[in-house]
Amino acid sequence: MKTIMRSIPVVALITVLAGCGGKKDSHSAKMAPAAAPVPVQVIEAALTDAPATYEAVGTVRARTTGVLSAKVMGYVREVKVGVGDSVQAGQLLVELDARDLDTQVRQAEAMQQEVRDAEREVNNAAASAKAQLELAQVTFRRMEDLFRKKSISNQEFDEAAARLKVAQASYEMALSKQQQVRAKAKQAEEAVQSARIMRGYARLTAPFSGTVIEKRVEPGNLAVPGAPLFVIEQAGSLRLEAPVEESKKSVIRVGSPVTVHLEALQRTVPARVSEVAPAVDPMSRTYTVKIDLPAIPNLHSGMYGRAVFPLGAPKKTLTVPAGALIEQGQVTSVIVADGNIARHRLVTVGSRGEKRVEILSGLTPGEKVIFPRPATLADGARVEVRP
Does the pTM of the predicted model rise above 0.90? Predict the structure, then answer.
């Protein structure tokens, strides 16, 4: 009994101390200061007049691209240019080993010389046969006159007539041989020209002025007819090729104005549609629009570009400053001031201008978008809107 009575004060003391400790903690929590609101500035999401446009993303390509390949088989002796080099029309790019072709040219030239010698001989023979024919004709006329006067015998007259016929046949034969040799001379001349042309194929030259964008040959390689050696883009003839939705086919036509944004060069240039593909791709439901570009320094094929086509009168669009957007991968959002609380708001972005961006969904006109946005501002933080 005494033991129990002695334990009661100890328990009571512990209880009192615990109660005192709890009251002290609660008082401390009440005395802790709340986080200060973050001072921010806001701008209202507003409806603004924006031109009705359609934007298509495309790729810069050359109007004319040439694939250079060999017409004859041969080992590559020398390569004159490399990727990125500028070339002029007619400039030598590749030279093949042409010793076999040189031999063919010499053989054709030797044959041509033989035909020329034979042609001189045939011409001389024709001239001799003509002279013999003329002599036979004069002799026959004289014998014919004497025969009428009964001054020669029939035998002598018949012999004169026979000599005339032989002379005529000899002359006609000489003319025939002359024609044959002339035909052979023409064939020999064509053979020489053909051999020289084939030899010329051993020297591959640029078909036009431009830039080498691809090289597939090295010295010592065997060039095969039809196998690509170089790809050359013609200088000064670049254009933007962009796929456009088929629903815009009645609006975007040849000659339509368009604004092209070249992101890599940070350039915006006015242009016009130069070509519209007549067929629609059944898979993507788009058709290709080609836009000629002016000569711009450092512009190369393969670059990215955006084509903006005007479609009509301006329309009212909801916009916010471009700097107010928060882009994380495929997710875009803004922070709005909901009373004195910052709230993240997911938005869908439309066309982008230099300073403002169209908002398709996620905001309503008049909502206060925090801009400029403090870097450390988090969702749910208290804010204080200041002018």
Answer: no
